[in-house]
Amino acid sequence: MRAQDVLEYVGRTVPRLTDQQQHPRHSTNYLDEFPMAYLKHPAPALRLPDPRSNVLDAGSRSLDQGVRAGATLRVVGGPTNSEFYLVQGQEQRTVGRVLNAANTLVLENLAPGPYDLVQELGGKITRWNIQLTPGPHSFNVRAGGLD
């Protein structure tokens, strides 16, 4: 088993197991022939739970509902190493981690409505209440609000 095999498996499996809440990405620019493990024996039975369904119950609400009339949120001006989350009710979605101050984080196809945008930086939590309507929105962290 190569490192590339693990990365491909994670990229395919994590979105399904997290109900499309997480989408790990990787990039490599080298030929990956580095073995991580030799699989001579069958894998153990891990008894993992069944993956969550991608189908919504009729009465449930998801951050992804309203794809046709969805909102797009761009988060700009975040400090390096800060992490952002979007919360609506009991649902939380990771927006991303700012690797440098020039990064723009983007979430698309969000259901319009009220949200909390949460920033975590060095153990400190900052929360902003925002209202998204259909269409594009840009949140400027330095200004503390939607543009």
Question: How would you summarize what this structure contains?
Answer:
This protein is mostly beta strands and 147 residues long.
Task: Explain what you see.
The protein is mainly beta and 147 residues long. It folds into two domains: 1-55, no CATH class; 71-146, Immunoglobulins (Immunoglobulin-like, Sandwich), CATH 2.60.40.10. The chain contains one helix and eight strands. The protein has a four-stranded mixed beta sheet with strand order 4-1-7-8, with no helix packed on it. Strands 3-2-5-6 form a four-stranded antiparallel beta sheet, with no helix packed on it. Strand 2 (83-88) and strand 3 form a beta hairpin. The longest helix is centred in the N-terminal third of the chain and has 15 residues, at 3-17. The protein starts with a helix and ends with a strand. Residues 53-67 have low confidence and may be disordered.
Fill in the keyword field for this structure.
four-stranded mixed beta sheet; Immunoglobulin-like; 2 domains; 147 residues; elongated; four-stranded antiparallel beta sheet; mainly beta
Strand order of the largest sheet: 4-1-7-8
| Total of DSSP H or I helical runs spanning 4+ residues | 1
- The rough form would be described as elongated
Segments where pLDDT lies below 50 for 5+ residues? Answer: 53-67
Distance between the termini: 48 Å
Our Rg estimate from Cα atoms comes to: 19 Å
Main beta sheet strand tally, sense and closure: 4 strands, mixed
Rounded average pLDDT: 76
Count structural domains: 2
Number of strands: 8
CATH architecture of the largest domain, by name, is: Sandwich
Helix content bin: 10-25%
Q: Order of SSEs, N→C?
A: HEEEEEEEE
Task: Report strand %.
Answer: 25-35%
**What is the name of the CATH class of the largest domain?**
Mainly Beta
**CATH topology (level 3) name of the largest domain:** Immunoglobulin-like
